[in-house]
Design a protein that fits this description.
The protein is of the alpha/beta class and 91 residues long. 29% of the residues lie in helices and 19% in strands.
Length: 91
Amino acid sequence: MFLDPTDKVERSQKVFAPRLDTLQGKTVGLLDISKSKGAFFLDRVEEILRQQYGVKDVLRRMKPTVTRPAPQPIKNELQEKCDAVIEALSD
């Protein structure tokens, strides 16, 4: 018996969001996926975004658990209020 190791799954084309010209004056979402030390890591990311990139505001949210995707209300809020979102993990 021989197994074909190639992947036969057809994947849909993904369309990426357009890149921002600058972060200056933008609102950036930081999504903590609930890994340990995530808040510590995101504190530093937020500091850098504000000081070095002139980000106007940072909206931080946390997934309830690392094992599941973010709940739709969190995704909706980040999409509605943020110009960009960084999903971060840390251990």
